[in-house]
Design a protein that fits this description.
about 450 residues, alpha/beta, D-Maltodextrin-Binding Protein, domain 2, five-stranded mixed beta sheet, about 15% strand
Length: about 450
């Protein structure tokens, strides 16, 4: 049951996330506090507000403007999602498809009914259309999502990068983020022509990759095997529905409207929309939030480093070991293959890799032999893993495929012990090893030294 729980928690998280995040967010879009600029007096605007509150409670928030030009400017400056100019046989509605393609039909339908009740026919003018290659108005979501997913899986796969320290991981994050941003921008702007060409897109696509990758990498030392689930929940399962890219944020339930200005995807989507269609207006909040996520990731990495140094110092003080036994790197079991790795004995928690090979090395009297080198090799003589026993003479390792292996235990001054074992992922093995008595000292023929 523990093996099943360890292996199935991530698929279960995806199942729950899609059912309880995407489904509630998208199944019944309804307008919430949609800001509309109205070219009318405060009294006339208040009367229209009352009419809309009766028809669509809480759906629209109207604000009066001096004239049609001011109402139109409110849309272009992102302070309103649409502008309504009442009066005459053809009341006029200004819209901005680039600010919510799925929201525009809802606004048009609502104000068409308002005009009809006043005895007129609504006229509509599009102020900010999307580019021809983005008819549904969702391309910004997919551009941002491609960068988020690429950054997440980079962190997952780099957990098995042998010899990479924290600086190398951070440098890889920065380099991969720059490549990802460039590829996403060039593909979307020039190959598919789904977004307007604007080099400033590169900055915000790069920022969202760093917000995701550095934060996800910073979570590793604190959550280990669970960090993939936490990262995917933050950046995909909650990030996509709250981003406003698929369904405008004004049509989402309150929980997702609350998350929109907090999570990276929503801020990246808002920034790209402003850069591409609204003349770089209202970029302060998206820029600050994306930089804050990046700074949080750097802070987590530094805290993880300090935590590791403190743990290593404690282990060095508590254990008689000549070599540190590394913990296995955290991994996403959906994308990684088993790899032999040494474990620290008796320090396994739910979500960690289970040891496949354990044992204790003792002398003939049963006393533990700390610091004994234990090497596991395959039938061709290739070293699979090497570790040393702890202060209790114990060792542990995991990540083996089914193989007939040779386990060699060596301690200077004693005869080595060699054992042949069948290692099987489905059948953990405990192999205790007894090393012989210390070898007698021999001296040079002339008696000069041992």
């Amino acid at each position: 049951m523990r093996t099943l729980a360890t292996g199935l928690w991530l698929p279960a998280l995806f199942l729950a996330g899609l059912l309880f995040s995407y489904l509630p967010a998208f199944h019944h879009p309804a307008p919430h506090h949609v800001s509309i600029a109205v070219a009318a007096s405060p009294a006339a605007t208040a009367q229209l507000q009352h009419e809309l509150d009766v028809a669509v409670p809480g759906g629209f928030t109207l604000r009066p403007t001096a004239d049609a030009a001011e109402a139109r400017a409110a849309v272009l400056h992102l302070s309103a999602l649409a502008a309504y100019v009442p009066g005459g046989p053809h009341p006029l509605l200004y819209g901005a498809k680039a600010n919510g393609a799925a929201l525009e039909p809802v606004i048009r339908q609502t104000f068409a009914a308002v005009a009809e009740r006043a005895g007129g026919t609504l006229a509509f003018r599009e102020l900010v259309p999307t580019v021809p290659g983005d008819a549904p108005g969702t391309s910004l979501l997919y551009v941002v999502l491609s960068c988020v997913v690429a950054a997440y899986f980079m962190v997952i796969t780099m957990q098995r990068a042998v010899g990479f320290d924290r600086r190398a991981h951070v440098a890889t994050s920065i380099g991969w983020g720059a490549v990802t941003a460039a590829v996403a921008y060039l593909t979307a702007a020039y190959l598919v022509q789904a977004i307007p060409p604007n080099p400033l897109y590169l900055l915000y696509l790069f920022l969202v990759t760093q917000a995701v990758s550095l934060t996800a990498y910073g979570l590793v030392p604190f959550f280990r095997g669970f960090f993939p689930g936490i990262a995917i929940t933050l950046f995909v399962l909650l990030g996509v529905p709250s981003s406003g890219g698929a369904v405008p944020v004004q049509l989402l339930p309150g929980f997702f409207r609350f998350l929109h200005p907090i999570l990276p995807m929503g801020n990246a989507t808002d920034a790209l929309r402003s850069v591409g269609y609204f003349g770089n207006r209202q970029l302060l909040r998206p820029t600050v939030v994306l930089c804050a996520w990046t700074a949080a990731g750097v802070t987590l990495i530094l805290l993880g480093y300090l935590r590791q140094q403190r743990r290593l110092a404690q282990e060095a003080a508590d254990q008689t070991m000549t070599e540190y036994v590394p913990r296995p790197p955290a991994e996403d079991p959906t994308v990684m293959l088993p790899e032999p790795v040494a474990l620290a004995p008796h320090q396994h928690h739910f979500g960690d890799e289970e040891p496949m090979l354990t044992g204790r090395v003792t002398d003939p009297s049963g006393q533990p032999l700390p610091g004994t080198t234990v090497t596991v090799i395959d039938p061709h003589g290739r070293q699979l893993v090497r570790t040393r026993t702890d202060r209790n003479g114990e060792y542990a390792a995991t990540g083996f495929s089914e193989v007939v292996a040779v386990v060699i235990a060596i301690m200077p001054g004693r005869p080595a012990a060699v054992t042949q074992l069948l290692l099987d992922p489905a059948a953990p093995v405990n192999q205790d090893i007894v090393l012989g008595a210390p070898l007698p000292e021999t001296r040079e023929p002339d008696g000069s030294g041992p």
